[in-house]
Amino acid sequence: MERAQTRIGHVEVDAPVVLAPMSGITDIASRLIAKSFGAALVYIPLISAKALCLGSRKTFDLLISDAAERPVGVQIFGGEPDIIARAVEILNSHPIDLIDINMGCPVPKVAGHAGGASLLRTPKLACEIVAAAVGSTNKPVTVKLRAGWDESTINAPELAQMLEKAGASAIALHPRTKAQGFAGKADWSLITLTKKNVNIPVIGSGDVHSPNDARQMLEETGCDLVMIARAAQGNPWAFSRTLTLLERNELAPEPSQSERLHTMVRHCTLLVKYEGERTAALKMRKHAAWYVKGMKNAAKAREKINRSKTVGEIIDVCQAMVGEWHESCSSDGGWKCFATTD
């Protein structure tokens, strides 16, 4: 299969796999790692439009980006068209490629303040927000949706059509309701219906746990792009393995334990570069837990990492793990110390 290109407004996305925006998870280091493994589009996640307008330093710090991660979008949330418009005007001066409006987040501090998934219940306001954003920028404006507020009010296919008319350049759909949260099963048939209802790209999301899931979603629903979320936590190979399957019809092997730990150290190094040693050490606690999941002595390693106060201590734990495996594996096992790995 040839690598398909999708155009969102004037932005070209050169592969069908993208990294989902996940608050507190897809920081700049995570995005750069995902990009290096084949994610064609990444997002700065869940920025408050109101906080941008108020000039919140903490919020502006979240907008840090690097040319290597482009194309990159910024996902914003809010429930007031004028605030959204002002936030978009602020974002016009930042080196980003598109603006995504979150209309799917079920978390109370977002959905409880007229933003996120609450907009699923107010289609007219949702369209006014998109129109306000589109009128304030030359960048493409996209929207992330859920299926509906609850089982009795599923409206994503119809709302997507309305949002396209309001100026949206693409729709991302996680076909669970707000009431479901992350429970139950994502109803991919709603992605199919949404794709049939609009003439703009549709990004499918939900229950993509493996390369085979990604391929199945593309084939079953006809969506243009697949958004990988939790399956990419500590596992950027989700992107490269999916692309290998799509392009060569081959399922690449899972990464070795050595590869996983080497990438984890690279992730750690990027965090230090962009966010400083202290923040890096704190953030790597959760990332490390994902990288070592399922490995031998993973629980012991997580415990040591959670007690680590510096990046150096975290790297020491990883090197010790590789050393232990090197001693226990066969002579052709292929374990390499980080000091000798590119």
From TrEMBL:
Keywords: Flavoprotein, FMN, NADP, Nucleotide-binding, Oxidoreductase, RNA-binding, tRNA processing, tRNA-binding. FMN binds at residues 75, 144, 174, 229-230. Its cofactor is FMN. InterPro entries: Aldolase_TIM, DUS-like_FMN-bd, DUS_fam, DusB-like, tRNA-dHydroUridine_Synthase_C, tRNA_hU_synthase_CS. Residues 19-318 form the DUS-like FMN-binding domain. It catalyses: a 5,6-dihydrouridine in tRNA + NAD(+) = a uridine in tRNA + NADH + H(+); a 5,6-dihydrouridine in tRNA + NADP(+) = a uridine in tRNA + NADPH + H(+). The active site is at residue 105. It is an enzyme of class 1 (oxidoreductase). Its EC number is 1.3.1.-. One of its GO terms (molecular function) is tRNA dihydrouridine synthase activity. Belongs to the dus family. Catalyzes the synthesis of 5,6-dihydrouridine (D), a modified base found in the D-loop of most tRNAs, via the reduction of the C5-C6 double bond in target uridines. This is tRNA-dihydrouridine synthase. The lineage of its organism: Bacteria, Pseudomonadati, Candidatus Hydrogenedentota, Candidatus Abyssobacteria.
